[in-house]
Amino acid sequence: MISSRTDGSRAAVGSGQNNWVMAGVISQLLLMLFVVYWNFRDPRLERLSLLPLLQFKTAAANELTLLPEFLCLLMSGILWFAILCVAVSVSALFWANGAYRSIRYIGLLCILFALWLSIYVQWEQIAWLGHRHRASVTVKRLMPLAQQLSQEWPKYDGQSEHLGPFMAYPNGRPSTLILLTPMSLGHDGVRLAAVDRDKDGTLRFELSRGDESLWLEWSPQNRVRKTSFVDGVGGSYRQQRTIAIDRNWTVARYE
Q1: How far from 243 is each of 65, 134, 247, 250, CA to CA, in Å?
Q2: Is residue 75 within 8 Å of 37, Cβ to Cβ?
Q3: pLDDT band at 51 (very low <50, low <70, confident <90, very high)
Q4: Residue 213 carries which DSSP code?
Q5: CA distances from 7 to 3, 97, 170 (A)
Q6: b/e map 89-119, b = 16+ CB within 10 Å
Q7: Other Cβ atoms within 10 Å of 147 Cβ, number
Q8: How far apart, in Å, are the Cα atoms of 76 and each of 33, 54, 72, 73?
Q9: Strand, helix or coil at 164?
Q10: Could you tell me where the DSSP H helices lie in the chain?
Q11: CA distances, 65 to each of 35, 58, 72, 192, 242 (Å)
Q12: What is the mean pLDDT of the chain?
């Protein structure tokens, strides 16, 4: 009788531990999927710390992210629940029954650890895949403008159907067009601020969103891409990072 009760208690404890393990695995996978979604929605992910989310601060209100406030709070909840599940799952190696010291269980923990370690190590690369995804949408809107400017580059200040009013520097033989009214490129707040042109025909479109700035570059095929340039007003730019979109287009950051 006592033995049967003991076996029933162990089964109940084991079932509870299994539930924690399953909940931990599911929460980890949900968190990874959320990071992927976040990456393709928010250009600020590259420089974002998870600390505000751990403190349940509304990152959207603090202008740390472009995600809605309710998604930030949801992320906070999932993050804390995932941490709790990890703590229980790891501690089970020391106080739970032998099933939690099996090769299968330890292997599962190692796989989750390896996945998070890969995300941490490749965080910047993952963020740039998000930049490329968003830039590929913007490229479709800029393609007509790139074709027009590659054939008819303005020589003086003026106005065009695609750019609106602009100033050309230096006047007469300009290499930079500065838009007097930055052109909106979509509902996500991306605006075209300036266009630069190299002697080899490469066009650079400066995109801005708040204090963030990236460049979309269009280059004729079989041209060597430069890693630095000087614009028409004397500003010197050195390439910090770049990623290709297709044969002609790349997205880059300059400093």
Answers
A1: 22, 12, 11, 6
A2: no
A3: low
A4: E
A5: 6, 13, 86
A6: beebeeebeeebeeeebeeebeebeeebeee
A7: 12
A8: 14, 6, 6, 5
A9: strand
A10: 2-41, 51-54, 69-95, 103-121, 123-151
A11: 13, 9, 9, 21, 22
A12: 77
CA 206 to chain centre: 18
Q: What is the DSSP letter of 99?
A: G
Q: How far apart are CA 248 and CA 13, in angstroms?
A: 60
Residue type, position 80, single letter: W
User: Distance between CA 218 and CA 225 in Å, rounded?
Assistant: 10
The whole-angstrom separation of Cα 200 and Cα 88 is 60
What are the sequence ranges of the domains in the chain? Answer: 2-121, 128-254
**pLDDT tens digits, one per residue of 56-101:** 555 554 555 666 677 767 777 777 777 777 777 777 777 766 666 6
Instruction: Tell me the C-alpha distance between 72 and 253, whole Å.
Output: 27
Token pair in block for residue 239: 């390439």
Q: What is the pTM of this model?
A: 0.75
Q: What is the CA radius of gyration of the chain?
A: 26
**Contact predicate 43/134, CB 8 Å:** yes
Q: What is the pLDDT of residue 115?
A: 83
Q: Give the β-pairing of 164-169 and 158-160.
A: antiparallel
Give buried/exposed letters for 200-213 (b at 16+ CB in 10 A, else e). eebbbbbbebeeee
137-166 per-position pLDDT tens digit: 888 889 988 988 988 899 899 988 878 899
> Phi first, then psi: what are they for 246, rounded to 5°?
-155, -160
